[in-house]
């Protein structure tokens, strides 16, 4: 049976979708899209609420919605707090207003407490260093998604918020209209143990070591590329 929220995506008319997770009274989530469509959070919630080891979030009134231009300053303050990297102002303008980005925020009591930002790119447009993510058997028309950002406010960590945001993104990337998207990849500092643990526990695999990839306050720092294969995507044989 079609989930009510999927119906809402198809109709693309409802501005707001409310649902309550069955068998879990304390877990109520409201999804709202300011771009006129809703994302499939229902699957993510059901999947996680049945997994005892990941209790998911137990916050009442948690809302998921897409970022909009008026979020810019709030998002910038959060990112400055979460990440050691200084992004230019234009980066914040882009992720809060350009529809090419899938920029989803978790809102609690009217405040952004988590966000995930990703974009789908043609595989042919990737930088040289990322080009060997996919096996050469995939056509030149394949695409991949790049995760630019994932963060949760310190007070709300280890409540399943990042899992919820990631599951939502993966649901979007595995929807029929995105079947050409064969992988989701990201870069992470080699020293960021909580994030690496998070990705490894969610089936991302280490793809590449990137010496001196980051420039942080004038110092070069190493990075890793992590990849989650989707829609039948796989790495070159032997990797
Ligand atoms: C990495 C990060 C996004 C994870 O966010 P989070 O919301 O804490 O993630 P989750 O709660 O979904 O999962 C984290 C862990 O908490 C556990 N957890 C979830 N709910 C829990 C609960 N109620 N009690 C105890 N543990 C819980 C999960 O099982 C998970 O453990 P695992 O990774 O070993 O499987 C967060 O630490 C962060 O924002 N870090 C700073 C920014 C950053 O480095 N981002 C990544 C850049 S590449």
TrEMBL record:
Q: Which GO terms describe its cellular component?
A: Golgi membrane
Q: Name one GO molecular function term.
A: protein N-terminal-methionine acetyltransferase activity
Q: Name one Pfam family in it.
A: Acetyltransf_1
Keywords from the UniProt entry: Acyltransferase, Chromatin regulator, Chromosome partition, Transferase
CDD domains in UniProt: NAT_SF
Please give the catalytic activity noted in the UniProt record. Answer: N-terminal L-methionyl-[transmembrane protein] + acetyl-CoA = N-terminal N(alpha)-acetyl-L-methionyl-[transmembrane protein] + CoA + H(+); L-lysyl-[protein] + acetyl-CoA = N(6)-acetyl-L-lysyl-[protein] + CoA + H(+)
Enumerate the PROSITE patterns for this protein: GNAT
The UniProt entry, under InterPro entries, shows: Acyl_CoA_acyltransferase (IPR016181), GNAT_dom (IPR000182), NAA60-like (IPR045141)
Domain N-acetyltransferase residue range list: 62-231
* PANTHER family to which the protein is assigned, alphabetical: N-ALPHA-ACETYLTRANSFERASE 60 (PTHR14744)
Q: What is this protein called?
A: N-alpha-acetyltransferase 60
Q: What organism does the record attribute this protein to?
A: Rhodnius prolixus (Triatomid bug)
């Amino acid at each position: 049976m079609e989930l009510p929220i999927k119906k809402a995506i198809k109709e693309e008319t409802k501005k707001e979708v409310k649902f309550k997770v069955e068998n879990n009274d304390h877990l109520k989530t409201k999804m709202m899209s300011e771009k006129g469509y809703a994302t499939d959070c229902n699957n993510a919630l059901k999947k996680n609420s049945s997994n005892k080891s990941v209790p998911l979030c137990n916050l009442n009134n948690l809302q998921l919605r897409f970022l909009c231009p008026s979020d810019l300053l709030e998002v910038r303050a959060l990112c400055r707090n979460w990440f050691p990297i200084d992004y230019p102002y234009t980066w914040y303008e882009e992720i809060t207003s350009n529809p090419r980005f899938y920029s989803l925020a978790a809102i609690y009591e009217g405040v952004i407490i988590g966000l995930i930002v990703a974009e789908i790119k043609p595989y042919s447009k990737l930088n040289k260093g990322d080009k060997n993510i996919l096996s050469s058997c995939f056509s030149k028309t394949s695409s991949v998604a790049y995760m630019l950002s994932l963060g949760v406010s310190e007070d709300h960590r280890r409540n399943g918020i990042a899992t919820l945001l990631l599951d939502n993104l993966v649901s979007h990337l595995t929807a029929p209209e995105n079947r050409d998207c064969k992988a989701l990849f990201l870069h992470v500092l080699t020293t960021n143990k909580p994030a690496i643990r998070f990705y490894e526990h969610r089936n991302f695999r280490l793809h590449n070591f990137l010496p001196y990839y980051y420039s942080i306050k004038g110092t070069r720092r190493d990075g890793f590329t992590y990849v989650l294969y989707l829609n039948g995507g796989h790495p070159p044989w032997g990797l």
